[in-house]
Amino acid sequence: MSFSYRSLTELREDMRALGTDVPVEEDVSILGRSLAVNRGEVQNRLGTHPMEGCDGELDGAPGTLTWRRYRRFAAGGAGLIWFEAVAVRRQGLSNQRQLRITRDNLDAFRALVDEIRDTAQNTWGGNPYLVFQLTHSGRFGLEKTIAVHHPLLDAKANLPADYPVIDDKELASLVEDYREAAVLAAEAGFDAVDIKGCHRYLLSELLGAREREGLYGGSYANRTRMFRDIFDAVKASADVDLAVRFNSYDALPSAIGWGCGSDGEPDLAEPRRFVRELESLGVGLFNVTASSPYTGPHISRPYDKPGRFGYAPPEHQLLGVERLLHLAKAIKEEVPNSVVMGTGYSWLRHLAAPIAAGVVAQGWADIIGFGRGAFAYPDFARDILEEGEMKRSKACITCTKCAELKASRALSGCVVRDSEVYVEPYRQLG
Fold this sequence. Notes:
This protein is of the alpha/beta class. The chain has helices at 8-18, 64-75, 106-124, 151-156, 168-188, 202-207, 220-223, 225-237, 269-280, 297-300, 317-334, 352-362, 372-376, 380-387, 401-407, 419-427, and strands spanning 35-37, 40-42, 46-48, 80-87, 99-100, 129-135, 192-195, 241-247, 283-289, 339-342, 367-370.
């Protein structure tokens, strides 16, 4: 169905009819409470998820629209800003305009951090906690790098069955790339570094690489080895907090799927073990998501219209929202002393705040993240905290146009709410 709710009462009626277990708290003031995170503090319970804009300079530095986006996020009042994916090496870029931090462009990132903090201080008196996401795009990059073969995944990336698989030596060399990028992120002034493990990019793919041979495949210990090695290297070199955005499950066949049973449904035994082990390594912030926009977009981000992705959601979107909320809850139960950031709120539009407040009140998650919703509505947090609600006229309508732009490696942003910038790039998709 398409979102048609005008009031919380109407939304609750459908939740009851579907039998969903989703907490609701009409008093949203709990979202204004501060929270200790690692060695820092988040001044409220609202955050922006990492959303690539595909608008950096060719040397990897932030571009004009990158600066614009983070100024808008900074002024928007969210206590946590999770920076978009930054490639750790040129061969790991998802597009020519993806960000990539180097010693040569470090000053540009440092200046952007200063700008974010100054803007937040001058608009709402805040100092957002800043997380820097490091990634390698793997099979979805410009130079397609794969950790394992499977007909379904190879078809998604248009790869032949004999396409070369990255070897163990090359994988091991990535640890230094992540370490060096984390050192630079700390120097730039970011509070935490996220080693991205979601949406079936390279490190996420390794988690499900049961059919891979060698040091990084087969057993659970081998499939999680890269994360342990990278976090150990970062801890030894960078004065920065540790975070991870990871798939709680992949919604893929168990032969290649992380957190999946034989039917592709969630089996969280390994993800639960994973977060416990990462916590013991010093990771204190977990951002929980699922599946991949390339293989299961309705799972990773419930939406109304399929757009160019070609299929309508096969379930009621409230069931998808419920699933994401419960996945975060399961992880929070496993690491109760760490901070968990939840996903799955943008489809709820202007009614998201009472659900977010209910989740925090029930202890299912500590921070509520908005991805597409922040693209469309960068000041969502200020409206929630200052006025007690989100504005219907400003909310994301989950039309998937921003995702279509990203998938086409064009500028990515909200075509509907930020049309002056993004309508023309969208039209050029044809």
